[in-house]
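Hi support team,

I've been running sequence recovery on a batch of backbones for a student project. Most finish fine, but this one hangs at about 90% for roughly twenty minutes before it completes. I'm not sure whether the input is malformed or the queue is just slow. I've pasted the structure tokens below so you can try to reproduce it. Let me know if you need the job ID as well.

Thanks,
M.K.
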């Protein structure tokens, strides 16, 4: 049995609301028949003089009275319908949006790695809107129209079955045309969706890379790609409209043939004396009136086929396994241990394609540990594993003796601050961008963090100070300023573990000095892991862990490693020399 709740991924409340909406819609449809029935009676009364009878004015006044009552009933039914159908469906769609966002928050990073971000964002927005539309404009109308049409059909059959057959025999034929084209239409809409995703991906790529595109003179080739994607989208949209239109119009034409058939059968029965003129006229009026909702059904059905694609995608998102764990466990120690850890980004080739290979290493608490090694050796990966952005394939990562796999990722995150190179700033005020570090912080605390991170001076110079809007990813700020805002955030969070990705991009000396000052305030008394790119800055670290191709190459203090004359000493010497050359 077709399960509507399951098919539309509704909550229990959403499903019960949908049933109420269908009932309300049916009631509106039935109430709309009242004026129509009164009109037929009025019509019959008006035709009486043609048959040599007199018009009864009492009846005419009564019809007028019924007409007023019918108008009131239609108004009440429509009002109820509006509330039950639209208000509740928008509430359900809001619930869907929130639960999708909640789900995304809990998904492991591996999910995002295997999915195109454009596809994901387009999905969330478009699929929720489609569901909203289906719940408010399609399902209740489709089902209630079906119910009212069946009722009218039964009433007409009771009156004159021959005429009822003439009116309705074209319906199943026309319906077959629509249902028969289902898989064809689905294929067309899938291709249309694909072309839309490609086009939005191209638009995003073009806009994000506009600076590079202009600088490198790639306007022509990049624009050609975008243009091609947009043209394909237009072509697919037209193909889909044409494909849908041809079947819907075909079905509607077949249905309209029913009018001719009704006239033909009616005329035949009239000449045989099997039907009177008034009932015949009634059937003719009904046939025109009842085909309207059926035609609407035919246009709604393809939209429903289309919606199946949205629910399929939403289901993939909503059923993807999430990262769970203990959200209550209290951590009291901050030493971090890697025990025989192997990890691969590619879950399918986890055995052969490991980025981290059987790594056993410890990061002491209340100390600064530097992670060094050639580019691509796995330094950032190690920091991501500590924060449980990903789960390891083999071995264990422990924080304060607790396996991070057993901890709720958000809970674990509350013990950590991150300062990455690629700072993410939100399209909000400077103040709120810092406050993200700790939503419970007071205004004084936010400003104190900004001061400690050497942000206060430049923020005060912004047009509206702390209330200045930063725009899309803070594009109005310099690299150094963005970094200092992210340090202010981390200072405000005041987490016991700090994961720091040292900036590789060369900053001007003043900015660099300010950032160093901010960082030294941030790491005071904390367990710090710093991914170091410039080795001279970490010579004073308590411990240095040297990675090579995902494995532990060496560990120790700067002096001990220099003495050992291994990889660290080689990297250090190369950097010192290149530094000498650049001066
Ligand atoms: P490092 O920080 O030392 O430069 P990373 O930890 O960033 O190195 O990367 C280690 C390896 O993992 C590299 O080969 C890199 O291409 C790969 N890698 C990094 N991030 C991802 C990712 N999100 N998906 C797939 N591979 C990745």
């Amino acid at each position: 049995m077709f399960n509507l709740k399951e098919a539309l991924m509704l909550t229990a409340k959403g499903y019960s609301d949908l049933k109420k909406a269908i009932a309300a819609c049916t009631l509106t449809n039935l109430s709309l028949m009242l004026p129509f029935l009164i009109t037929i009676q009025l019509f019959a009364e008006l035709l009486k003089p043609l048959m040599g009878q007199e018009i009864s004015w009492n009846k005419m006044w009564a019809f007028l009275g019924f007409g007023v009552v019918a108008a009131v009933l239609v108004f009440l039914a429509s009002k109820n319908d509006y509330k039950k159908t639209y208000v509740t469906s928008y509430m359900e769609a809001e619930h869907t949006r929130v639960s999708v966002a909640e789900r995304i928050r809990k998904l492991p990073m591996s999910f995002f790695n295997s999915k195109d971000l454009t596809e994901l964002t387009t999905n969330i927005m478009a699929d929720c809107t489609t569901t909203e539309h289906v719940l408010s404009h399609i399902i209740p109308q489709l089902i209630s129209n079906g119910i009212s049409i069946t009722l009218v059909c039964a009433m007409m059959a009771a009156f004159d079955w021959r005429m009822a057959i003439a009116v309705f025999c074209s319906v199943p034929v026309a319906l077959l045309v629509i249902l028969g084209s289902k898989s064809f239409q689905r294929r067309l809409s899938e291709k249309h969706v694909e072309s839309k995703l490609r086009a939005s991906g191209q638009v995003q790529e073009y806009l994000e890379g506009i600076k590079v595109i202009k600088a490198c003179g790639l306007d022509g080739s990049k624009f050609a790609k975008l243009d091609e994607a947009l043209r394909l989208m237009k072509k697919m949209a037209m193909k889909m409209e044409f494909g849908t239109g041809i079947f819907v119009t075909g079905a509607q034409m077949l249905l309209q043939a029913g009018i001719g058939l009704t006239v033909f059968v009616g005329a035949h029965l009239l000449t045989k004396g099997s039907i009177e003129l008034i009932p015949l006229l009634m059937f003719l009026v009904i046939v025109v009136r009842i085909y309207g909702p059926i035609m609407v059904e035919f246009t709604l059905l393809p939209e429903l086929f289309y919606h199946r694609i949205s629910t399929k995608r939403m289901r993939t998102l909503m059923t993807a396994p999430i990262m769970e764990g203990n959200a209550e466990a209290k951590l009291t120690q901050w030493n971090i241990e890697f025990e025989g850890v192997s990890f691969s980004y590619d879950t399918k080739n986890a055995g052969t394609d490991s980025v981290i290979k059987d790594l056993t290493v410890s990061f002491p608490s209340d100390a600064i540990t530097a992670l060094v090694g050639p580019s691509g050796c796995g330094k950032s990966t190690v920091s991501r594993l500590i924060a449980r952005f990903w789960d390891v394939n083999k071995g264990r990562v422990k924080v304060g003796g607790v396996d991070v796999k057993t901890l709720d990722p958000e809970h674990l995150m509350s013990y950590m601050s991150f300062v990455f190179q690629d700072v993410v700033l939100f399209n909000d005020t400077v103040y709120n961008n810092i406050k993200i570090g700790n939503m419970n912080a007071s205004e004084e605390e936010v400003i104190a963090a900004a001061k400690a991170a050497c942000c206060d001076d430049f923020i005060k110079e912004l047009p509206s100070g702390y209330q200045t809007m930063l725009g899309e990813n803070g594009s109005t700020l310099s690299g150094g300023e963005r970094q200092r805002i992210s340090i202010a955030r981390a200072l405000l969070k005041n987490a016991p573990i700090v994961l720091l990705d040292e900036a590789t991009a060369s900053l001007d000396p003043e900015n660099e000095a300010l950032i160093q000052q901010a960082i030294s305030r941030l790491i005071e008394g904390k367990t710090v892991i710093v991914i170091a790119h410039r080795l001279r800055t970490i010579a004073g670290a308590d411990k240095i862990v040297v990675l090579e191709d995902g494995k532990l190459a060496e560990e120790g203090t700067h002096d001990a490693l220099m003495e050992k004359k291994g990889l660290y000493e080689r990297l250090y010497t190369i950097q010192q020399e290149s530094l000498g050359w650049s001066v």
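--
Follow-up from support: It reproduced on our side and the slowdown came from queue contention, not your input. The longest helix spans residues 219-272. No action needed from you.
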